[in-house]
Specification:
- With 166 residues, the chain is mainly alpha-helical.
- It has one domain (4-156): Up-down Bundle (Four Helix Bundle (Hemerythrin (Met), subunit A)).
- Helices cover 58% and strands 7% of the residues.
- It has a two-stranded antiparallel sheet.
- The protein is globular and about 45 Å long.
């Protein structure tokens, strides 16, 4: 079982790494961000869109907010404009931070039931485990983005949790 301190730590890590990767991607021409690099969601831009979409989907499940439009297939085209995508990412990271700052043991207890478009059915799982999945999913796709940035010749900053400043 995780606790509220873990959630706050991972929310900070999420924001720190998004700033790292988006800042690095800013140095690339738009065509490089959109280049199909063979990742699951093809490009840096599309993977960033998917990750934003998924974060919003999970946040809607955790806190009852509005779900993002479309399904997984449409997740890659949430924002066509890089500037808009960056703005929305910062806003979502702020919302994740606010949610994490307000989390307590009761919010991590019990089960959560949601409808999964990917599975085409309702699923139920322990809340704490789904929060772990939320942060793991972020790390997974940021790893792909990091690799694509490196392929493009960019050099993202450190990603190691122990070097994140307090």
């Amino acid at each position: 079982m995780i606790d509220a301190a873990y959630v706050r730590l991972m929310a900070r890590y999420n924001r720190w790494q998004n700033e790292n990767l988006y800042g690095t991607a800013d140095g690339l021409p738009d065509a490089e961000r959109r280049c199909d690099r063979g990742a699951f969601f093809r490009s840096i831009h599309e993977t960033c869109n998917h990750l934003l979409w998924a974060d919003r989907m999970w946040m809607s499940r955790f806190s009852g907010g509005e779900q993002p439009p479309g399904g997984m297939k449409e997740s890659v085209s949430l924002y066509a404009d890089w500037g808009a995508l960056k703005t929305e990412r910062r806003q979502t990271d702020a919302a994740i931070m606010a949610w994490a700052d307000g989390i307590d043991a009761a919010a991590l207890a019990g089960d959560l039931t949601w409808y999964s478009g990917g599975a085409q059915r309702s699923l139920t799982g322990p809340r704490w485990k789904l929060v772990v999945h939320f942060f793991n999913h972020q790390t997974h796709h940021r790893g792909q983005i990091h690799a694509m940035l490196t392929q493009a010749g960019a050099r993202p900053g450190d990603t190691d949790l122990p070097v994140m400043s307090e």
